[in-house]
Amino acid sequence: MKPLTGKVALVAGATRGAGRGIARMLGEAGATVYASGRGQPTPGRPETLEETAALVDAAGGRGVAVHADHRVEAEVAALVARIEREEGRLDVLVNDVWGGDALTQWGKPFWELDVAQGFRLLETAVHTHVVTARHAAPLLMRSGRGLIVEITDGDAWWYRGNLFHDLAKTSVIRLAFAMAEELRPRGVASLAVTPGFLRSEAMLDHFGVTEETWREGAKKDPHFLFSETPAFVGRAVAALAADPRVLEKSGRVFASWTLAREYGFTDLDGSRPDWGAHFLDAFGPISKPADETFYSYWQGWDALRRQMGGSGGEAP
After folding, report:
1. pLDDT tens for residues 165-180?
2. Domain residues for 19?
3. 238 and 29 in contact (C-beta within 8 Å)?
């Protein structure tokens, strides 16, 4: 009943949000999970890597908290070397490092943006993924079957409301594709996954609710009823990691809700949120990237998530 027993995973950016949920659900599937991140507390947030590791243990796996700044190549190399020394293998890498919420300048056209600040966003949200994958890939290839998962925001080429935010989130999708081309002959799959409206710790705090009372948040935003816990995308990643045919999916981008339909998993409460279906019902089909209805809603939703603490990705 634990398909990942004996497997080893590295979740980069695992302090909170999607990263924490993914680490926890990989543990639920029986994996040993190295949960990494800077380890420095984000202002106003209480979560720690050590708590994530404890949640992995409680779920049935083995959690290892590792403080590492994924912007610093030497620290990433040391992290992978530690995994090799302690485990002798690596089966799954999840790149969830983000850190872009405080750097995203919403409401400005690109010609008014602070370019240096935008480049810092790309360093935290894209460069870190490249560095981590570069050092983890040789260990992944050693087993003859591995998986890299890039966590993104959205599964299509819609504009995400800010130039650097859009570049970051679409770049990691392209990164998954590019790595897939080179890793496929070596038996390692590389793909991207997006959650839906993520009910992260910061989101719950913003709405003034808990995971038990979260439906009360619909009084502020009715779309919150279609949100999902970080465990939902976590189970998506765990299902992919356990799929013996995952290499057939390499190079593509998937959503938590589509993978739930395929693999049959549910969220923690037994529900199966479908943000994609809800969006279609609420706003209609998107005929083109410049669709005004979608564009205006996407801007508003991203701005709201920024206020709520973002999509849940952890700073490097």
Report:
1. 999 999 999 999 999 9
2. 8-308
3. yes
